[in-house]
Amino acid sequence: MDIDGMGERERELTAWLRLTLTRGVGPATCRDLLAAFGLPERILAQSLGSLARVCGQTTAQALLAEDAEREETVARSLAWAQDASHHVLTLADADYPQQLLQAPDPPPLLFAIGQLATLKRPAVAMVGSRNATAQGQANAEQFAHALSQRGVCVVSGLALGIDAAAHLGALAGEGSTIAVVGTGLDIVYPARNRDLAHRIAQHGLIVSEFALGTRALAANFPRRNRIIAGLAQGTLVVEAALQSGSLITARLAGDLGREVLAIPGSIHSPQSRGCHALIKQGAKLVESASDVLEELRLEAPRDQAFTAPERGDDKPEAESPSPVLSALAGDPVSLDTLAQRTGLDASALMTQLTALELEGRVARLPGGRWQALA
């Protein structure tokens, strides 16, 4: 590839891509080379002997060798990055997420599609089982919706089950969500989430450390979990079996010194045992989005604050009583009873209950019951 006619940014990016796409150069080796020689253009200008002293003879030879397959991927990546919504972030870029830089092994490159401003928001990772229960998915969607409405970005992995529910909930709120995937960004996995991925790309951000063309390999998903944990101030496990990959994400969050939170469930459900194990180990038990906000000390950015709708005159209007609050008058009641009293379906009812809970006007009780607060 002829780099003489390239602009400065394109030359720099070409060097970063060549470095990271070389066989044998993982994040650790890349950091060693950067520490020894500086930016990738200087690394690739070193002699074989100098490189070998840092990364070994085989990797040094690979760095300096002509590699048609690598050059093809470099050219493809540069062309892909011409789209205004496509981004390639390097460790040297100002837009590289600061939260991730605090991790011991940040990816040298991040490929992204969507709104880079999403990376500037306070974030909570939400993870859980792919084989989630209906209640688990409802919890994920409701928590994500409430957090998103408060200006908090929800980070997850675009998998089926809890991940998808979390993304959907966030999109229904303020639309602030990040999906970290284990493939190249020209591939959507699982294919069933293609429409969801397109929505996230429009309103949030999809992120990957893997080069274009990288298919869904089992080894890639534990690697992407460290990015999920690294982008967020804390990780909330919604539902997980004892052998769930979500527990890996929780452990990685703990290793980073980030908070780990978990939603309790039925003692009879295998999908709750991972959460219960985390709670026994010291994870924060949370029952509402308010618990998450309080534990992580997260506040909505000023530009995300809610404002009252404009009125045609300056006369104050009396606040209409909430039908949900009216239905909660008296003793605690179940969701089914509330649905009968209000005529609302479960989804609409939970949206209103979550909002009222965040306002401190209702409380969620054990057994799925709700009660109005004075």
UniProtKB/TrEMBL annotation:
<protein>
    <submittedName>
        <fullName>DNA-processing protein DprA</fullName>
    </submittedName>
</protein>
<dbReference type="InterPro" id="IPR041614">
    <property type="entry name" value="DprA_WH"/>
</dbReference>
<dbReference type="InterPro" id="IPR036390">
    <property type="entry name" value="WH_DNA-bd_sf"/>
</dbReference>
<dbReference type="InterPro" id="IPR010994">
    <property type="entry name" value="RuvA_2-like"/>
</dbReference>
<dbReference type="Pfam" id="PF17782">
    <property type="entry name" value="WHD_DprA"/>
</dbReference>
<feature type="domain" description="DprA winged helix">
    <location>
        <begin position="315"/>
        <end position="368"/>
    </location>
</feature>
<feature type="domain" description="Smf/DprA SLOG">
    <location>
        <begin position="88"/>
        <end position="296"/>
    </location>
</feature>
<feature type="region of interest" description="Disordered">
    <location>
        <begin position="300"/>
        <end position="327"/>
    </location>
</feature>
<dbReference type="InterPro" id="IPR057666">
    <property type="entry name" value="DrpA_SLOG"/>
</dbReference>
<dbReference type="InterPro" id="IPR036388">
    <property type="entry name" value="WH-like_DNA-bd_sf"/>
</dbReference>
<dbReference type="Pfam" id="PF21102">
    <property type="entry name" value="DprA_N"/>
</dbReference>
<comment type="similarity">
    <text>Belongs to the DprA/Smf family.</text>
</comment>
<dbReference type="Pfam" id="PF02481">
    <property type="entry name" value="DNA_processg_A"/>
</dbReference>
<dbReference type="InterPro" id="IPR003488">
    <property type="entry name" value="DprA"/>
</dbReference>
